[in-house]
Write a structure and sequence with these properties.
Layout: H1 10-21, E1 35-43, E2 49-58, E3 64-73, H2 83-95, E4 104-107, H3 120-128, E5 132-136, E6 154-159, E7 162-168, E8 177-181, H4 187-196, H5 205-235
Parallel strand pairs: 1-4, 4-5
Antiparallel strand pairs: 1-2, 2-3, 5-8, 6-7, 7-8
Helix pairs in contact: 2-3
């Protein structure tokens, strides 16, 4: 059963965010974790198609278990602060194709580090009823001091006097990433999870691989469409 209707105006979506934010539960992630999921979406430059991907990994080794995807047309316009209404529906469809569901889902998005405390990670966690963690490459809102340049350094991300996340240096001397709990997660356990997902890159490995796969799926389908179009032109 759907948590709510997706046929909404921007004004209705903002009002719904405020209501849903009150349902987000902030608590430590599960102590025992066997399967970690990671999501990403890729946008077509030539159409209104969205390519949603979810990968699952064995924990803690991060060996790939499964990769699923869903392709659809965007049903909600791009509106800053309302990204989840555009991207969550295809992610829900992709999630439904998983043979083994993850214990925690890592999202390339904000969690409660959002003007109305309902970023994509928090919204998706509510819809799926699972723990989610947001890990974004840039800040959406809030204030913070710069963390030291050494890997593992962090500073609180504050919004209206409340800590909504962590500004985290994932490699020496690189730009920090922004970690915030989604649903059924908290700041400290989210930080620990992301730290254990780091390999050679600034971005946690599961999210990096999900990003690569989302782009691969997009390019594969776009190339198929291009070939079909060329064949159709030859026939005419």
């Amino acid at each position: 059963m759907e948590l709510h209707s997706w046929t909404l105006s921007a004004k209705e979506a903002i009002s719904l965010q405020k209501t849903l934010a009150e349902q987000v539960l902030i608590q430590p992630l599960p102590a025992r974790l066997k399967i970690l999921g990671a999501e990403d979406l890729s946008y077509s430059k030539h159409s209104d198609l969205l390519f949603a991907v979810i990968l699952t990994f064995k924990w803690p080794g991060l060996d790939l278990i499964e990769s699923v995807h869903h392709v659809c047309k965007a049903s909600f316009p791009y509106v800053p602060g309302l990204l989840s209404f555009r991207e969550v529906p295809p992610l829900i469809e992709a999630y439904g194709k998983l043979g083994q569901k993850p214990d925690v889902l890592l999202c390339d998005a904000q969690g409660i580090a959002h003007p109305r405390k309902l970023g994509l990670a928090a919204h998706l966690g509510l819809c799926l009823g699972i723990p989610t963690v947001g890990c974004a490459k840039s800040r959406l809102c809030g204030t913070h001091d710069d963390p030291p340049l050494k890997k593992g350094s962090s500073r609180p991300l504050m919004l209206d006097g409340e800590q909504v996340g962590i500004v985290f240096r994932s490699r020496d001397g690189v730009k920090p990433i922004y970690i915030s709990p989604g649903h059924l997660a908290d700041v400290q356990s989210s930080k620990k999870l992301v730290y254990r997902c780091l390999r050679r890159y600034r971005i946690p490995e599961p999210l990096r691989l999900a990003h690569i796969e989302a782009n691969r799926r997009r390019m594969e389908i776009e190339e198929e469409s291009k070939v079909q179009s060329q064949k159709a032109n030859v026939k005419t």
